[in-house]
């Protein structure tokens, strides 16, 4: 059976018709009207209508950043969109006449990796999405963990450092403040501001203006062999490995899938993560170490995962 | 259908016939011959034979401290018993002729609480057993989490404090070093050794010898209102709450069940845990707080949980 | 002998004629031309000329925020003023014809407290100035500590929390990020943003806009008994006490003087500091605890200390 | 003028006649009767008598582990010797008829390095003695810092890690728990117990018994190039550098002298210390970095420093 997956991002709505093998056989996009839920829903319905013109589909899965209720129908809270306790599935069912399930976007992407991507051989998966922020999804015994209120998988806000860096969530020392794109860029700028000579080439590559440093620039310089950029990415990787080790004490996954924009750094990120993971995992002498692998679905993951969850 | 649950402890083997409501309808014990697996298995088989004389049972569940393989048949490693990669289920099936499943003891006790005890209304449960050490068990979507190698639920060795107190597992800053009976007693002794005046009454109650302080003494003084003992237990509770909050970011349970010897302190332990949990849980303004409740099955939990897992 | 003390702040130059008892017998001010060292020096010289019209003075002491060379003549670096390795004493001697010494402003204020203020009975003093940032000065055996390059007393950048909050200096976890006005306001805003109910009254007092929270507002509400504001100040106080305890392990002062804008909170700040100090000081059972006292010289300290150092 | 220096250790009393150039021109030893102050004093007096037979001396300086009163006459507290608020100088003056000053042993050794050893060109010195424990001494403006109660220089008990490793002093996270011989050996044993493969050669060199690992063995293997041993020493060095950086924020010394048994590892210890120091020192772009140098006086430092302080 075909189903439609919709990935609602901050600037763009991406939708596609997905088959049972996880292939996208048709796709379209709309821009995101972020401030008005009704306009956003109309845009989603419009994209769905376009796709249904060519394909018979049985349902819609929607992935969105934010807290999604455990019933998979309600957006409890979304930082970037104008939703508070909003019955998104009800509205979209009314507009489209199709059954709708809603899922957190990191969960949808994780599910795509579990079903069709880097973890398709696994039974227990931890996915960590290292983008601007840090996303997470966990599948155990083949079941995506959602939790009591649908808030499971919020690895970003596990405490990495007591009394550590303040987080936008109102707590201190959240893992996201140590391993995500924002953390990478902040470290680069702060260390550059202090006159750290190791960061000289990075500042130079930013046109001499340390405020112009961004994540892709750090990755590019790291790939060119610049020691300062490599150290910055290695630090993010080290915390990624530490975080994964503390999660693995609890979940013991088969595999750890790493996605998100920062994962473009590849082994420059993953090798330090593997090393820190091995050094931080309890009972490592008595069990196999879960491998760190790169996500394989790219930016299709959101659409494919959401569509598959709708089946 | 009746089944037998066996709880293998460091000094005692406790076994019982358990019905489908989680009631123990017959029970017996043997002492634990810790150094020889064959003797230990013979003692288990002997207890089983006694119980089967009166009751028709369909299988045996065995709970044991240690790492149990994900197949629920093999003891990978047990700190206190002479097992290394030992086929315990095979041996007991050979001796008894009944199907056998093996489970980690904290998991077995957690399952009993989930099925028949403090979490019997829940769908997602976190159990934390605060005894000499710290045990954990997690049930999500009604499924006990075991993980890839059967090592899931090792909350004791999640990192609470980077570069913190060394743990016997070879890592630093493990949660168990902050919230367990050993941590409680160590804090009492160290602070007493430094001449902390708040701990004067506790030392006096230990006959003037700070080395004689133990967990029950601290609990007793705390219950009598002694400020020093209360502060010591509150500190354990605070870390319990912090640990639970970081786990809840990942799992989002309905309920948090607290068992183990230190839980005899009741709200002297749980109130600081609740307060720290609330202060450390991300997005607390957008979701209900999972309640902290005391375990309800007492020391029957190991037998009942193991028996139920055998069905 | 009379001398002139000059306190160069970010917006105002305050100057005064000071007698040998630390009394200011004449005073004047100028606004601070921050971007041009020559204009600033001219303004200082102009203020000095006004004061010399009425009083015979033997020298000038100048206090300024920034790193002052150990020779007490050169401004190595000042974050808010346009000085880099600038021969300030030479320039002012040329303009005024009087001998000039330059000192870090926190050191000048600390010296005033040591000579004429809250620590005038002491031989070893630690002063902590809890303003927007954190300043420090230490006097040991009656000698103001300046160090090799004149950088001594930078308590702000002692590490309080490894991998803690990033500091503007390019390091992480500096004490200033835990105990200063900026830290106070940041904690208030972050916790308010997370919906912490304890901070409701504070947000309300800020006209419903959490971004309008500032330090004096927190202090005012704390003095009115608001629990949220009191908790915020107590947290700053706790870190102040911890920082003082780790400094005292090294210096063992007679007295700890606390000044700066946040010290307006009085015992709401100092009592938590005292408690944390007592709990964090090594060998507390074997020695007296240094008292925490409020600075006594107010904003005269900068002028008086600089003038006295010029003698 | 000649004077006698006495270094009272846990097992041996070493005494010597020292000239004004810091040379020992005669020496003798006694064993330490640790449990009886009177016997110990008699042993010191006997050693002094022997030395005075050949040389005319003007006074005696005594160095001892423990807290020495600021009057330099009284032993407030000594962990390993039977002294509590003991008037050691009075007793020795009565027995010898010579003027006596008492000093903490780390202070005495530090003074020797400042006057005649590795810091003889310096005006401001930090000395860190990395032995079984961690000792410290600071000289600022040419004055040995003693503090209000004589407790200055206790770098061992500055907080390195909040909520870190418990210390024998009753606090948590003291620097001594991260950079000293005991910390080195504990890390080696714990990591070996966890089956860390990197420590395999070290366990083998200890005859296969990880409990037999000691500090000299780790140093020897590190000097032979063993990666595990080098990593262990580098970790101690890293914390040494971090500790020195936080102290330098306060004191800004010219030079950092490193002594004690662990310093036998030389640059295997000092290079990681230098790197961490540079990475952890505030305003490093605006000032010279104090060099780390090895102590130059060896085990003569205690005698020479004590003797010189007696002059």
TrEMBL record, chains A, B, C, D:
Gene3D superfamilies: 3.30.420.40. Keywords: ATP-binding, Kinase, Nucleotide-binding, Transferase. GO terms for cellular component: cytoplasm. SUPFAM superfamilies: Actin-like ATPase domain (SSF53067). GO terms for molecular function: ATP binding; glucokinase activity. One of its GO terms (biological process) is glycolytic process. InterPro entries: ATPase_NBD, ROK, ROK_glcA. Belongs to the ROK (NagC/XylR) family. PANTHER family: GLUCOKINASE, ROK (REPRESSOR, ORF, KINASE) FAMILY. This is Glucokinase. It comes from Brachybacterium paraconglomeratum. The lineage of its organism: Bacteria, Bacillati, Actinomycetota, Actinomycetes, Micrococcales.
């Amino acid at each position: 059976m075909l189903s439609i997956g919709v990935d609602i991002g901050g600037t763009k709505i991406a939708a596609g018709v997905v088959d049972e093998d996880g292939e996208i056989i048709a796709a379209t996009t709309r821009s995101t009207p972020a401030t008005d839920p009704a306009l956003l829903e109309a845009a989603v319905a419009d994209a769905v209508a376009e796709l249904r013109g060519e394909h018979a589909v049985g349902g819609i899965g929607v992935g969105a950043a934010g807290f999604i209720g455990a019933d998979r129908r309600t957006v409890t809270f979304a930082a970037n969109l104008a939703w508070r306790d909003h019955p998104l599935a009800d509205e979209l069912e009314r507009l489209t006449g199709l059954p709708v399930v809603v899922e957190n976007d990191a969960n949808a992407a994780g599910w795509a990796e579990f079903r069709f991507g880097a973890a398709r051989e696994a039974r227990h998966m931890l996915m960590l999405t290292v983008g601007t922020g840090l996303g997470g999804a966990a599948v155990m015994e083949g079941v995506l963990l959602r939790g009591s209120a649908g808030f499971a998988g919020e690895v970003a806000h596990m405490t990495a450092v007591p009394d550590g860096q303040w987080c936008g969530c109102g707590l201190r020392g959240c893992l996201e403040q140590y391993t995500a794109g924002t953390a990478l860029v902040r470290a680069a700028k702060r260390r550059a501001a202090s006159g750290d000579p190791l960061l000289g080439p990075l500042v130079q590559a930013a046109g001499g203006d340390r405020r112009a440093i961004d994540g892709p620039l750090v990755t590019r310089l790291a790939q060119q062999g610049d020691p300062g950029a490599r150290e910055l990415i290695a630090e993010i990787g080290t915390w990624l490995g530490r975080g994964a080790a503390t999660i693995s004490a609890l979940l013991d996954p088969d595999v750890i899938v790493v996605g998100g924009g920062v994962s473009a750094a590849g082994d420059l990120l993953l090798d330090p993560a593997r090393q820190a993971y091995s050094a931080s995992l309890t009972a490592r002498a008595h069990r196999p170490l879960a491998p760190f692998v790169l996500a394989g679905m790219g930016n299709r993951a959101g659409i494919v995962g959401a569509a598959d969850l709708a089946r």
